[in-house]
Amino acid sequence: MPSERFLHPVSPVARPAEEALRATIERLAAIERPPCSPGEREAAHLIADRLHALGHSAKVQDVPAYGSYAWPVGALAALSTLTGLTGKRLRWTGTFAGAMLTAALADEISYGRQFARTMLSRRRTACNVVADLTPSRAQRQAPHRTLVVMAHHDAAPSGTVFDQTLSRWFASRFPGAVERMTENPPLWWPVVAGPALIALGSAARSAVLRRTGTALSALTVAAMADIGSRRAVPGANDNLSGVAVLIALAESLGRRPIPGLRVLLFSAGAEEALQEGVRGFAHHYFPDLPRESTWFLNLDTVGSGNLVLLDGEGPLRIEPYDAAFGDMIAHCALEQDIDVRRGLRSRASTDAVVPHRHGYPTACLVSLDDQKLIPNYHLHTDLPEHVDYRCVADAAQLAESVARALAAH
């Protein structure tokens, strides 16, 4: 689909009141919301109730989930550490086990089948919220375009690995280098490199490689144990800022519906367990959403100061997002006089990776501060008072502009 198809004038869209965005974030941030928890469920019902109050059909859907990446990743890393310690005596066992653990870790952290968590974790339940903003039943049944606007309402546990002291020092000391950076450091690479180096070291009889891999795996065990034992952060920016955009969009479209476009609002549970909730959404909804007429816009952590439309993301390899849809969103931002940066990629993963893998045109809107960092990311300082509400309002205005542009063109 050529991007020029959408490059037409976009009608002005009103900005939501920052006070309303703040009220949404403050109310939900007071609830502790780790994945698959009673707090996540409470938040889901509060979001659905708010959407009902705005006159929309919304429901809370329970989906199966496992609730954490820390324990399965930690368990695999522990097995890798043990393999490294015994690899000197059991050469081919170390080679085979290291290779298998490398594949298992890659599968676990990059939207694979995640066999490890099915064997090592207890199955639980995540709570999604889905609202259909299409004005009438007839329009919902008629074939037309669909826009799914996504966010997530669960919150991440903290951990020492998320401390930003070193990153802030580097950004302050080397601002030129930071300005040239187009992606964040690949923090998941050392996790997978541990067993990979053990396998190589065992096969090559290299004590240096094997010991390096063992050390990396042991550090992963420590990091995952730390994360797994921590409480959830308030998650005001990550990602109640995205939820606030969903509520603002529901309020605006309630006043000015969009004929000819089906708008689904989706707030996922268990995103912080590596996209658990959106997998349930995919199972229920993707069979009825044609790829040629459905677009996904993911809003994740949009209160950091500077909006960024990611070119791609992925923990192990970068997967590019739909360029034509990105061009259209950038055009809408230009028409609304909203600054949105492009040309950046993320070495993490958000819920956007799931519809993207299923072949839907997908875009992911995030935000960074002036040092290209997410302030207070996965820290207990991620509080409502630290959210940039101007940036959240920009994201809401842009999301509505994108919806109206899809309907008009």
Main structural class = alpha/beta
The ordered string of helix (H) and strand (E) elements is: HHEHHHEHEHHHHHEHEEEEHEEHEH
Number of helical runs?
15
CATH superfamily of the largest domain: Zn peptidases
Strand order of the largest sheet: 1-2-4-3-5-11-6-9
Give the second-level CATH assignment, the architecture of the largest domain: 3-Layer(aba) Sandwich
Strand segment tally = 11
CA distance, first residue to last residue: 13 Å
Seen as an oligomer or otherwise, the chain set is: single chain
- CATH topology title of the largest domain: Aminopeptidase
Largest sheet features: 8 strands, mixed
Could you say which overall geometry the principal axes of the C-alpha atoms support? globular
CATH class membership of the largest domain:
Alpha Beta
Mean model confidence by pLDDT: 92
User: How much helical structure, as a percent, in the residues?
Assistant: 40-55%
Tags for this model:
alpha/beta, 2 domains, globular, 3-stranded mixed β-sheet, 409 residues, Aminopeptidase, 15 helices, 14% strand, 8-stranded mixed β-sheet
